[in-house]
UniProtKB/TrEMBL annotation:
<feature type="region of interest" description="Disordered">
    <location>
        <begin position="23"/>
        <end position="52"/>
    </location>
</feature>
<feature type="compositionally biased region" description="Low complexity">
    <location>
        <begin position="34"/>
        <end position="52"/>
    </location>
</feature>
<keyword id="KW-0472">Membrane</keyword>
<protein>
    <submittedName>
        <fullName>Aldouronate transport system substrate-binding protein</fullName>
    </submittedName>
</protein>
<dbReference type="Pfam" id="PF13416">
    <property type="entry name" value="SBP_bac_8"/>
</dbReference>
<feature type="signal peptide">
    <location>
        <begin position="1"/>
        <end position="20"/>
    </location>
</feature>
<keyword id="KW-0732">Signal</keyword>
<keyword id="KW-0564">Palmitate</keyword>
<keyword id="KW-1003">Cell membrane</keyword>
<keyword id="KW-0449">Lipoprotein</keyword>
<feature type="compositionally biased region" description="Gly residues">
    <location>
        <begin position="23"/>
        <end position="33"/>
    </location>
</feature>
<dbReference type="InterPro" id="IPR050490">
    <property type="entry name" value="Bact_solute-bd_prot1"/>
</dbReference>
<dbReference type="InterPro" id="IPR006059">
    <property type="entry name" value="SBP"/>
</dbReference>
């Protein structure tokens, strides 16, 4: 049977650096293929594969292509890691598994790992060489890039027509540079969004704020200082301290504020590294990196949160409690502010978790700061978590089988059909579409604020809408996931905030990474600890500031910055800067 192919395949070329040798391992025919991404793409557009065979006359045993449903003639199974979320634990009989099998004739052999242990288990499996073929839900491939155990996927994307369509039509080239390694390649297939939506912000009790005399009509224009003024009114109106008892041990909120103060902050045991990272910011005027967390901007940033703490606005237990404890206080009406994303807010409302009658919850836009009214979610660009593919896949499947797997991944994770399937399920079973393509979830199914009180849940009972598969997509699929209230929140953000410039990546090689990491670990642990001490008053920001800066320098902040800038200057040609 002749197989349908994509009519046109685009070579992914970024400043001349993203074309590289593709498929240097033994092919199924016993030869070694070494074809550039550009050459392979040209060959495929002409109807030939990278090995030079005439694909149009060759029975591949599967269908694939741009906007074509992948389907294998013979059943095939791929091994895959699975991040098992505690709120919707994985089930063998989820409809998503049979839906994928019906469409593609593909099943998975899963290595299921609890979400909280996922990163550690992935690291152990990759480093030992025992990881499954497909490892999704990866936010950063850098820890694995020098292991020799994962594939430089940029060598192979010419075989992925839907992926390349997104890159071309959405202009993703600059975003993809964020993932480059020192060899000019990237090792993670990212989820890609056509447009950046909002991310995390703050839920507030609007009824309490308004009763305190706070004018909510200007909320989208608030600075963090304006938010402080509003909090003071709430404190005075209620006569209570600790009106902000935050979840994520303040790590999320610190990251939200850090973006508009021009610094790096946000790290907690409950949530991990929200944005502290290595303290590096990029000066676009000077075209160089600097250590942001010893600057006057950072000092003012700490003074802000210290003011909230000293005046009894911020609950001292914020820094030690887990998210469940923080949420319980909010539900009881003991606090009135909570860091969150919109899905958490939707779950609170749909599941009637508030224990206060007539509580009116409002999702703020993130306040602006000294560096402007910035869209916090734009700092990372339009890339989402993604997939790393292990060397085991290429070794076990051979080149032809490996390319077949890539084309399956291309359909499931990057085609419009794949996005709709993994997000919403099976048309006619879990959702319907009107003539304009608008999606309506079945009324007996709840998801992300849709159909509160429904007897079933899309992710819990069916497996659709989960983070392993359902991320990235075009504007239509993005908007389909938003309730009217969430659309309104995003409209507020887009109307009032501007995107941030993307920071260039630091293309360190293996030895340079080791050198930098030796400094980073102890330095940033000290910075994080000192931040909490300054905020809680254990250290005086004015009296102890100079000694803090000296301590950072003695722990390597200057040396780290110099090394980062040296690497940056040596790799500007790769980045096209």
């Amino acid at each position: 049977m002749k197989k349908r192919l994509a009519a046109l395949t685009m070579a992914l070329v970024m400043a001349g650096t993203l074309t590289a040798c593709g498929g240097g391992s033994e092919s199924a025919s016993g030869g070694k293929g070494e074809t550039s991404a550009a050459d392979a793409a040209s060959s495929e557009a002409a109807g030939t594969d990278a090995a030079g065979t005439d694909a149009a006359e060759n029975d591949l045993g599967y269908e694939y292509g741009e906007d074509v449903t992948f389907h294998s003639d013979e059943p095939v199974q791929y091994t895959m890691m699975f991040s098992d979320h505690e709120n919707y634990p994985m089930k063998d009989d989820w409809r998503i598994w049979s839906a994928i099998e019906e469409k593609a004739n593909v099943t998975f052999k899963l290595t299921s790992v609890a979400r909280t242990d996922y990163n550690a288990k992935v690291t152990a499996a990759v480093n030992s060489g025992s990881a499954p073929y497909i490892v999704p839900k990866i936010y950063d491939s850098k820890p694995y890039e020098d292991s020799g155990q994962i594939i430089a996927v940029s060598d192979w994307v010419q075989y992925m027509p839907n992926y390349q369509k997104q890159v071309k039509e959405w202009g993703m080239e600059e975003d993809l540079k964020q993932m480059l390694a020192s060899d000019g390649k990237y090792y993670r297939l990212p989820g890609m969004w056509e447009s950046v939506a909002g991310g995390y912000s703050l839920i507030i009790r609007k009824d309490v704020f308004e009763a305190a005399g706070v004018d909510m009509s200007k909320e989208a224009e608030w600075t963090w200082e304006d938010f402080y003024d509003a909090l003071k009114k709430v404190q005075e109106h209620t006569g209570k301290d600790n009106i902000w008892s935050d979840q994520f041990q303040l790590g999320c909120a610190m990251n939200l504020a850090a973006n508009v103060y021009g610094v790096k902050a946000g790290n907690s045991a409950d949530g991990g590294d929200w944005g502290l990272q290595d303290g590096m910011k990029f000066d676009f005027e000077k075209n160089e990196f600097y250590f942001a967390d010893t600057t006057e901007d950072y000092k003012e940033f700490l003074k802000y949160f210290n003011k909230l703490y000293k005046e009894g606005i911020l609950d001292p237990e914020t820094f030690t409690q887990d998210s469940q404890q923080a949420q319980a206080k909010f539900f009881r009406g003991d606090s009135y502010v909570l860091s969150s994303n919109y899905q958490i807010l939707s779950d609170i409302q749909s599941q009637n978790k508030m224990q206060v009658e007539d509580a009116d919850l409002y999702f703020m836009t993130t306040p602006s700061g000294p560096k402007g009214n910035l869209k916090v979610s734009s700092a990372a660009g339009r890339l989402e978590n993604g997939i790393v593919i292990t060397k085991n896949a290429l070794d076990d499947l051979g080149e032809e089988g490996f390319i077949k797997m890539l084309r399956f991944i291309d359909w499931l994770w990057y085609s419009d059909e794949g996005h709709e399937l993994t997000q919403w399920g099976v048309e006619g079973e879990t959702y319907t579409k009107d003539d304009k393509g608008n999606i309506t979830l079945n009324s007996d199914i709840y998801f992300n604020g849709f159909n509160p009180g429904a007897s079933k849940q899309l992710n819990v009972d069916y497996g659709f809408g989960g983070g392993v598969f359902a991320y990235g997509g075009n504007v239509d699929i993005q908007l389909s996931k938003f309730t009217d209230a969430e659309k309104e929140w995003n409209e507020r953000i887009n109307a009032n905030k501007v995107n941030q410039q993307l920071t260039p990546p630091v293309l360190a090689d293996e030895m340079q990474k080791e050198d930098l990491n030796l400094i980073k670990v102890s330095l940033m642990d000290y910075v994080n600890t000192a931040a909490l001490e300054f905020i809680t008053g254990k250290r005086d920001i004015d009296k102890d500031w100079d000694s803090y800066v000296s301590d950072c320098e003695s722990k390597g902040s200057t040396k780290y910055t110099d090394q980062v800038n040296e690497i940056f200057n040596d790799t500007k040609d790769i980045l096209g800067m």
